[in-house]
Amino acid sequence: MNLNAAFALPDKEAVAAALARQSGGEQITYDWRDLSQAMHRKAFTASRLANADVLKALHDGIVESVQGDLTRNDWMDNAQAILQKAGWWGEKTVQDELTGEAVTTRFTPARLRLIYETNIRTGFAAGAKERADRTKKLLPYLKYVHYKYPDATRARADHAALDGMVLPKDHPFWQQGYPPNGWNCKCMALSITAREAAKGKAPPDDLMQTTTWENPRTGEVREMPKYVAPGWDSAPGASSQVAQVADKLKELPAPIGAALAQTIAKGAPEVTRELEKAFSSFVEAALAAGKKQGKTAVYAAMTADELALYANETGKTPASAALVMEDRLIAGAKARWHEAAGDALSEAEWKSLPGSMADKDKREAYFDTVKQNMVYALPSGDDRTIKLAVEVDFETGRKKTMTNMTRSAFKIDANVLEDRKRYVPASD
Q1: pLDDT digits (tens, 9 = 90+) for 56-72
Q2: Which residues neighbour 319 within 8 Å (Cβ) at sequence distance 6 or greater?
Q3: Helix (H, G, I), strand (E, B), or coil: what is residue 28?
Q4: Residue 33 pLDDT greater than 50, yes or no
Q5: What is the DSSP string of 89-156?
Q6: What pLDDT shows up at residue 240?
Q7: What pLDDT score does 133 carry?
Q8: Which residue, 70, 316, 328, 382, could crosslink 332 as a Cys pair with Cβ 3.0–4.6 Å?
Q9: Which of 247, 264, 277, 308 is nearest to 40 (CA)?
Q10: Is the pTM of this model over 0.85?
Q11: Please, are residues 41 and 262 in contact by the beta-carbon 8 Å criterion?
Q12: Where are the domains of the chain?
């Protein structure tokens, strides 16, 4: 198979991925680290290009190129002309929105080439990932193929170490390490049969090892996979619809977010199923890592009644309706403490949370007058009740983003929540 030829062919999934980035908008950023990788997957960016019209023109050209209407040279020529006309070609000084400092940005042929190739490869990889997910029954494995540079000194040792590695498609590594997984990465993942997989190479022993990385822009601290570069720890096209819904729930004012969640629950069961699948993958990845990685996932949203209860008890309306889970509760020190105490959730119970929270007959909500937080009660796999304690308007990162963070999750005797002096129900 000629891989270069394959990448030159118009690809309906790749086109769809490129067009999907329009739904995320063209995002003006001052540094690539200002956006989460999930947002990078659905929003076209060019750091420090503070001109929405120019950004949109560059993105439209990328879409044309993926569709087969423009070559790389065509796009670069057009992009240079657009930037020159707008006064952005060469060096330009702009103010960093986060720090207030004056910073210099440079648009050169080399930078245009990086922008082009990053977006093109990501688009084609998203298309390949979608096809891989669809063919899971016939081709249940993925083989990592490291790009062979003519000049061997350009090869990255960590990517070369993965060359020929074979893993099942549902292995947690692919959720973060599906290529491209670094700047200028040209690696690929090929779908193969079980018979072909038997001849493949086993993964390195430290495949799921992580290192701590602090985003110098936002202050966010994350555990990064050893073989994945910061900013690339999300599979291309991975649950883009789910990521969009999760982002909307976090960004929208709480009453609107609650209404969106209700609309999805009633009229979009396929989105609900995708949210449940995404959360299951989040749980599996946390358990596979065996320790916290600084990751979070949206698993539900507060209802209008719950927002009203919180506002009535505190005099404040939450900033958003999104309910967020930290991976440290699943695989961190707190998780191990609850395991020792015998009240930890099982893997199946963790995975059941989105479904149970979407079922009004299973979900009970309370305001804890002592802790001043929200508490959710859900059925467990035994005779106890799952208790989720949520701190409303919890601040995260240097930008102090407000979110409703689940701070504890464990099983209790149901009668504990019958104390009406402490636990005020959302409805009787």
Answers
A1: 666 666 666 656 656 77
A2: 253, 254, 393, 402, 403
A3: coil
A4: no
A5: SEEEEEE-TTT--EEEEEE-HHHHHHHHHHHHHHHHHHHHHHHHHHTTTTS-EEEEE----SSGGGS-
A6: 54
A7: 85
A8: 328
A9: 247
A10: no
A11: no
A12: 1-134, 240-425
Residue-by-residue DSSP string for 87-107: T-SEEEEEE-TTT--EEEEEE
At 313 the pLDDT is 96
Tell me phi and psi for residue 93, to 5 degrees. Answer: -95, 130
CA–CA dist 95, 90 (Å, integer): 17
CA distance 315 to 318: 10
Which of these, 321, 392, 333, 326, lies nearest to 353 by C-alpha position? 326
According to DSSP, residue 427 is labeled -
Instruction: Answer whether 118's CB lies under 8 Å from 47's CB.
Output: no
| Among the listed residues 82, 97, 100, 87, the one whose alpha carbon sits nearest the alpha carbon of residue 48 | 97
Percent above pLDDT 90 for the chain: 39
At 341 the pLDDT is 96
Q: Is the dihedral of CA 212, 215, 220, 224 positive or negative?
A: negative
Asked if 354 contacts 299 with a C-beta cutoff of 8 angstroms, the reply is yes
CB contact set of 245 (below 8 Å; sequence gap of 6+): 260, 264, 271, 275, 298
DSSP per position, 175-235: HHHPSP-STT---EEEEE-HHHHTTSBPPPTTTT-EEEEE-TTT--EEEEETTS-TT--S-
Per residue in 226-279, pLDDT (tens digit) is 999 887 877 665 545 667 678 778 888 889 888 888 887 877 777 788 788 889
Q: Give dist(CA 50, CA 30) in Å, integer.
A: 8
Express each pLDDT in 348-398 by its tens digit. 999 999 999 999 899 999 999 999 999 999 999 999 999 999 999 998 765
Q: Which residue has the tokens 């609850």?
A: 338
